[in-house]
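Researcher: Re-running this chain for the archive, since the previous output was lost when a drive failed. Same request as before.
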Amino acid sequence: MKSSERRLATSTGLLLVFCVFLALWKTGLWLHIPLPTTDGVQSLSHTFSILRGDFLHSLYWHNWMAIFQLPYGYGLITAPFMGLLPFGVLNNFFVTELLLTAITAFLAYHLIATSQIPHAKLFAALASAAVFAHPQLWTLRPETLTLPLLLLALIIIRASPHWIALALAALLIVLAGLTQPLGGLIGVIMITLFELEKRRVIQRIILSWVMVVLWLSLLYLPVILIDVSSWEQNFIGFFTREEPRGLATLGGALTSSVRAVAWTALLIMLYALAAMRSWRQPSFSLRRELIFLLVLLVPMVMGGMGYYFAYLILFIVWRLSEMPLLMLPPLSLRILIVLVIPLFSYYVPTLQNVENPRYGETVRAILDYTDSYSDRTDPGMLWVSTQAGYPLIDEPYARVLANYVELGRYDTLIPLHADDEVLFISETERSILMGNFAVTPDNIVVETVIEPVPGLLTAESGFRVRLPSLGLWRVTLR
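Model: Regenerated structure tokens:
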């Protein structure tokens, strides 16, 4: 082996070791503030209903985002993780997102490293480290599941032109769609663009569409037929009334795209370096790259939310694997990239924790308190803040404290019974209590269980503005 090749192999190995270091760092951050993300907890509501044998409902989220509203893919895929991992309900959340993020980074590495391009393995290691540190993957939102599914589909159809490979890729795309409909749409667009770039016959492209339709009919049509009217009301209604998409939310998507681009900046830089290196190669087409990007950006933008820009990861990794040449950054730039990779997922939360250590202490105290309700024997309901109640997500009496009336899930205020309790962790949630439950300040008792502490400083404000104060309040009827 030449000395240059040995240096590249050593650099690649060091980057993989760096990913292990990032995993340990992330574990330390979790142990200090073991607070699941709101979107992740909401999505897992159906998962724990499945584990209780109740496939058609989503109890913790009070049947908002039930099976007729969003497909069942997320719950089906995460159920084995949550049911088999031995670390307890709370820590299983972190271990699941750690495993899924690591799988996504590995698939990104494999897709680029097997492209037979000079220096592909080192470039793949840089890209996979950037993927591993991407903040969006550490939320356990649906994108944490759909991205590895779509990357695996891409690997399969690139490895073999056989129709069986196409069928497997179509199945993975449908599973992504059952996890998040927009992810499935992006998967269909991606496989179509891939086949067009490879100049496959039009019959093969049509066959891929047919396979997607067949898999979707097999896996989702029976659910629709259980109650067609409920599906229309919840699924169609969700995307047209409760959370409209398209031009109605275009402004919000563009505003939130700034943060999404910042999170993906290192991958974008690697993509730009590769495009510059491949500029004069006959097989490279800047027009093709721009067209592919614009085509895939349309559903991301029309999704109306910034987190859909996580699919830029899929686009960049795919296009890096198709570049004719990759520009290997100089050593100084490689070192800079490695130093910048942990910026959003590691440096920022570490600084927040150091500046405000009481916040982590309060989070742990809150979760310990809510976990103590797991031995509850009285028949009352417990309405609790989404994140604080996560230790009780598998309990049939626990419900998320949310704006059900505003969301159209209730036409009237929810009655609060004598044995019911409400737990909330922020003063801003007091308005949710008063706006959704048939209570008045005169007929409830609000008890401060854990004194509030100042919220964390936010990076978006330049560490000048804090999140709302965090504490724990308990509400019962007089």
